[in-house]
Design goal:
- The complex is a heterodimer of chains A (about 750) and B (about 160).
- Chain A contains 28 helices and 22 strands.
- In chain A, helix 2 packs antiparallel against helix 3, helix 3 runs parallel beside helix 5 and helix 16 runs antiparallel to helix 18.
- In chain A, the strands form five sheets. Chain A has a six-stranded mixed sheet. In chain A, strands 6-8-9-11-10 form a five-stranded mixed sheet. A five-stranded mixed barrel of chain A has the order 12-13-22-21-20.
- Chain A folds into five domains: about 130 residues, HPT domain (Four Helix Bundle (Hemerythrin (Met), subunit A)); about 210 residues, no CATH class; about 60 residues; about 180 residues, 2-Layer Sandwich (Heat Shock Protein 90); about 140 residues, SH3 Domains (SH3 type barrels, Roll).
- Helices cover about 40% and strands about 20% of the residues of chain A.
- Chain A is α+β, with helices and mostly antiparallel strands.
- The two termini of chain A are about 50 Å apart.
- Chain A is flat.
- Chain B has about 160 residues and is mostly beta strands.
- Chain B has a single domain, classed as OB fold (Dihydrolipoamide Acetyltransferase, E2P) (Beta Barrel).
- In chain B, the strands form two sheets. A five-stranded mixed sheet of chain B has the order 8-1-2-10-9. Chain B has a five-stranded mixed sheet with strand order 3-6-7-5-4.
- Chain B is globular, with a radius of gyration of 15 Å.
- The chains are: A alpha+beta (about 750), B mainly beta (about 160).
- The interface between A and B is medium-sized, with 29 and 24 residues.
């Protein structure tokens, strides 16, 4: 993978996070929250997406994001009112940005006019204002050639901390400095983090030019000799003066909003004492002294500051010039916004920083590192081994040992606790909030409600419930199907709802909660419910249900998941649901979950997914067939019964069936199926009734049932090959291997065999 | 477990194989001696039973747990068509890597480390015997014939359906 590919991947990872955040913010905005915090967060996210897109030359994304951002900016400073109309435009635009990002990721082009309508709306809404020309946002990474033999003058040019086209960055803009009235002076010293976060002073300067007349001078006195030049060193600072009638402190600060904390900004208003005469040594000390970079969220206590002051700064202090003095000088004039890195960050300023502090506190909560899932899985596996080894040790300790080596026993007990703790901790790494899936649903509902002409509100509860990442990945499709069904078939048209005495707007409620060792995910609508008569009729017509078979209401509801029953043509014309509902059930079964549906005619339908917390550990029933251990996933087991109590029968074709509660179930004798000799007495054997794909059942006959336990799934294919009817292996407490029965697989091959 | 580190043998006075020589681990099945290149051997351990795999050929003795990985065990005697090995605690499993996979081979005993000049490796005589199919060459050592195991051939064709 080349560096650029890696950057690309990182960019898209970040986009995914930003889009998630946007979805969240817009959900609040949609609910009527129009606070500045929300808008700022949206603005920041769009801005970041745009910035990266520029670097990778995703021009259409940049163009759209830019205009979107302009609109947001206008809304933010009150030039455009956030009406319902504008809010819905923003919502739609958010979806479009997401589409552009997706298109860029997949390297495909969207229709040429995609988003054009919204683009035109942005422009018309903002047309009164000065529209910043697009070019200003082109992020140009033209490399600068460095002539190593060149003289100092040349190195000055090359010494720009990041590669800028020298032609584009004149040392000063050709505007004569306007002294006196209306002139703001700004001393801008970026720290290295500013560049590390891919900000570019040039862009900031260009932004400044939109406020007023700007005169910028670079201070290059800090530039070292070329030999001493560090590639990532920061040597340049700028003196800027801005004048014009519209220039306000707020507008200047706004330009630097994104780099707050990553640079030093000393702003002097018109008529204030200029604060420029700071000797360079102290300045460089400032730039090189991270301890003095006061983070917004953790104001440095006054007392600790001097201790952190590096030698150079102390020299400056000796010379009678200090930032404390400087701040004291500035403070009376601008008490509410003191210069950035001053040590006297006190309650007065704390208040001013409140909003940004809360913003950074928020970032802190989502702070994360990206780790390859493979690496996590490796840890999960090792911990699994550790758990097994530990339980093996425990089993090895007999009473004799216990009485003789009490210290050892205690040690093993502590080890057991620690391993359990470690296991939980590792599982928690894989766990993710379901939010990442849930957050895609508001958009789906918006689209569905437009498409169907119904008014639908999506309520989401428990987005922070955590569940294994692999499960989350498998959840998107089933949830989409379920919500689409609720919107398509569950929620009625507005006029129908009104006639039924319900509010015009239908509600789909999506919730997640933990219930013991499982996660429950519920999709509930307040629509018409399942039309049981029609569903049953259709089921009889299609032979899914026998003509004489009597079904309970619940059984009829569950019919919608029956395979072969749920084609769209079959069901979209009745009130029932059915777009790929068998897909839902097979996906969910695959990850060891189950689906249940409950309907209240006239009052809606509830579909509930029950999912395991993790896939790495499987709850199993340990059984024995011909002296070998086998395990059956607990999630697929309906019940177990003793052979002598089971009601076996034989079909005319000679196949064994089990009759259980009026149902005939296929019987698979594992010993016969696996061609193993069994000495067990037929009467003493056990029947494990399992659920296979598509809600059908299979009765698995085993020699003995040993117990339940948790196991770690191991691959057989890694060193061997797939065996029909075996889903994998696992290692038991005594270190031996047990095979996992593939319930669907044993059934399938039996059918094949009998067909052959 | 009672794993013997192969390295202890490998550096027991002899150098690893050079450009002109190969080093073999020799093991016996009854009177017959076979060898595999030492570089493919990962571990040698005592037989401690295996979990049988259903619907596989007779010579697949089952799978064992090798530090958390499931490794299949092939009964070399059965592979050569001489019936299943009557296993005791003294039987030995030689774990080897074949491509990406690790497999174990059940033998009676590991007998020696041999350093053989490459030139001394002879082709297996043509014929439709099991030997021609499963050996990649023959060398002579101490006036005894040592068959070089073709690992790929050993592990192929394990499924009943194949």
């Amino acid at each position: 993978m080349s560096d650029l590919d890696e950057f690309r991947a990182t960019y898209f990872d970040e986009c995914a996070e930003l889009l998630l955040e946007l979805e969240e913010q817009f959900a609040e905005i949609e609910d009527g929250d129009r606070s500045a915090d929300r808008l700022n967060a949206v603005f920041r996210a769009i801005h970041s997406i745009k910035g990266g897109a520029g670097a990778f030359n995703f021009t259409r994304l940049v163009e759209f994001a830019h205009n979107f951002e302009t609109l947001l900016d206008h809304v933010r400073d009150g030039r455009v009112e956030m009406t319902e109309d504008v809010a819905s435009l923003c919502l739609r635009s958010n979806d479009i940005v997401a589409d552009f990002v997706a298109a860029a990721r997949e390297e495909r082009e969207l229709d040429a006019d995609y988003g054009a309508e919204e683009l035109a709306r942005f422009k018309s809404i903002c047309e009164d204002e000065d529209d910043e020309p697009m070019e200003e946002f082109d992020i140009d990474f033209t490399p600068v050639m460095v002539d190593l033999d060149g003289d100092k003058a040349e190195t000055d040019d090359a010494a720009e901390p990041i590669a800028l086209d020298p032609d584009e960055l004149p040392d000063s803009f050709d505007v004569p400095p306007m002294g006196g009235e209306g002139e703001w002076r700004l001393k801008f010293t970026p720290y290295s983090q500013l560049y590390e976060r891919a900000n570019d002073p040039l862009l900031l300067f260009r932004e400044l030019t939109t406020i007023g007349e700007v005169n910028i001078e670079a201070r290059l006195t800090e530039l070292p000799e070329l030999t001493a030049f560090e590639a990532f060193g920061v040597y340049c600072s700028w003196d800027i003066s801005i004048s014009g009638k519209d220039v306000t402190e707020a507008r200047i600060r706004e330009v630097f909003e994104f780099v707050e904390g990553d640079c030093e900004i000393i702003l002097t208003g018109p008529g204030e004492v200029p604060a420029f005469d700071i000797p360079d040594p102290s300045l460089s000390a400032m730039a090189d002294a991270p301890p003095l970079v006061v983070e917004d969220d953790e104001p440095t206590p006054e007392a600790s500051a001097p201790a952190d002051v590096p030698a150079a700064e102390e020299e400056a202090l000796d010379a009678g010039l200090s930032f404390a003095d400087l701040a004291a000088e500035l403070a009376p004039a601008k008490p509410e916004k003191p210069a950035k890195p001053e040590p006297e960050r006190e309650p007065a300023s704390a208040q001013a920083q409140d909003s940004s502090a809360s913003a950074s506190a928020k970032t802190a909560t989502v702070q994360s590192i990206r780790v390859d899932l493979d690496k996590v899985d490796r840890v999960v596996n090792m911990v699994g081994e550790l758990v097994i080894t530990q339980s093996m040790l425990t089993q090895q300790m007999d009473d004799n040992l216990k009485s003789r080596y009490q210290e050892l026993v205690r040690g093993v007990e502590v080890l057991a606790q620690t391993t359990r703790g470690l296991q939980d901790a590792v599982m928690a790494i894989r766990a993710q909030p379901v939010k990442s899936v849930f957050s895609r649903m508001p958009r789906l509902v918006r689209e569905l409600s437009t498409k169907t002409g119904k008014s639908i509100r999506l309520e989401m509860v428990g987005e922070h419930t955590e569940i294994d990442k692999t499960i989350i990945e498998q959840l998107s499709d089933p949830l989409t199907h379920m919500i689409r069904n609720s919107a398509d078939h569950g929620i009625e048209k507005p006029e129908k709802r009104l006639a039924a005495g319900k509010p015009e707007q239908g509600i789909i409620r999506l919730s997640a909660e933990q219930a013991g060792g499982s996660i429950l995910i519920t999709v509930q609508d307040d629509g018409a419910g399942i039309n049981r008569e029609r569903v049953l009729q259709l089921a009889r017509d299609r032979g899914v249900v026998g003509p004489d078979q009597q079904l309970t209401d619940e059984q009829i509801d569950e019919l919608i998941f029956a395979p072969g029953f749920s084609t769209a043509e079959a069901l979209s014309d009745i009130s029932g649901r059915g777009v790929g509902m068998d897909v839902v059930i097979s996906n969910i079964k695959k990850i060891g979950g189950s689906v249940h549906v409950r309907s209240w005619p006239g009052n809606g339908t509830r579909m509930q997914l029950r999912l395991p917390l993790t896939l790495a550990v499987l709850d199993v029933m340990l059984v024995q067939v011909s002296d070998s251990p086998y395990v059956i996933p607990l999630s697929s087991i309906v019940e177990t019964l003793q052979s002598r109590r089971a009601d076996f029968g034989v079909t005319p074709s000679g196949r064994r069936v089990l009759q259980v509660r009026g149902e005939y179930v296929q019987v698979v004798d594992l010993a016969t199926r696996f061609e193993l000799p069994t000495s067990a007495d037929e009467e003493e054997r056990f029947v494990v009734l399992c659920e296979a794909d598509g809600d059908s059942k299979v009765a698995v006959v085993v020699d003995d049932i040993i117990g339940q336990q948790q196991v770690v799934i191991k691959s057989l294919e890694e060193n061997f090959e797939r065996i029909e009817g075996i889903a994998g292996g696992t290692i038991l407490g005594d270190g031996s291997v047990a095979l996992i029965v593939d319930v669907q697989g044993v059934r399938h091959t039996t059918e094949q065999k009998s067909a052959a | 477990m009672e794993a013997l580190e192969t390295r202890d043998h490998a550096y027991d006075g002899t150098e690893a194989g050079t450009a002109n020589t190969i080093q073999l681990i020799a093991f016996s099945i009854g009177e017959q001696v076979y060898g595999v290149e030492i570089t493919t051997v990962r571990e040698i351990r005592a037989w401690n039973g295996a979990t049988p795999l259903p619907r596989t050929r007779e010579f697949v003795r089952g799978v064992i747990n090798l530090r958390g990985t499931i490794v299949p065990i092939f009964d070399l005697r059965a592979r050569f068509g001489d019936g299943l090995t009557e296993t005791t605690k003294n039987h030995v499993v030689v774990v080897m890597s074949v491509g990406e996979k690790w497999v174990g081979v059940l033998v009676d005993a590991v007998s020696d480390i041999l350093t053989i000049p490459r030139n001394d490796v002879h082709a297996v005589p043509e014929g439709d015997s099991m030997d021609a199919e499963l050996l990649s060459g023959i060398v002579t050592h101490d006036e005894k014939m040592v068959g070089l195991i073709d690992l790929q051939a050993i592990v192929s064709g394990v499924s009943m359906d194949a």
